[in-house]
Structures are given as structure tokens and as C-alpha cells.
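Protein in question passed on here:
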Amino acid sequence: DGFFGWPEQAPFDAIMVTEAAPRVPEPLIAQLREGGRIVIPLERDGSQQLTVGVKRDGRLDLRPHGAVLFVPLVGAIEQPTAPGPTAPRATSDAR
């Protein structure tokens, strides 16, 4: 289940998610090094946006980079409150 990432190898400078998700999984945020980047297709309002996040001060600064179409991320992400380590919440800076 990609939701949980690879905690044994963290922290990461960069994470690339190749399945669309409704939100950035908290375990991935926790595994991202400060200043690191995550690239993830996020689902919003029936469409997907390739989104790049940079972790700053423990939070993600998210920026959309265009429409995409990926298969959905399944597993723990489908639960309203998925199990796993707690991490900083993502913030959105939509333009």
C-alpha cells in the first residue's frame, strides 16, 4: 500500500507518487525531508492536477502544474482516518 511509503529508508529528498489521491498521505509528508519535494496527482472536483509540494517548516506548500489522468491510489487512503504515524498537515496555495 503506497499510502505508507517506505519509513525504513526515510527521510527522502523527493517522493514521486504515480497514483491519484484525494490528499497527500500523512505518512509521506512525515517521510519527506525538510526542503524536500513531493510530486503527486491530486483529485479535486472530479479532475486531477499534477501537484508539486515543498516541505517548509513541517508543512507542504502545494502548487498545481496542470491536468493529468492517473489510476487511483487504493488501500488505506480510502479510509477517512487512515492508520499510520501523525505528520504535519498539508497546506494549499492554489492560484
Summary: The two ends are 31 Å apart (CA to CA). Residues 84-89 have pLDDT under 50 and may be disordered.
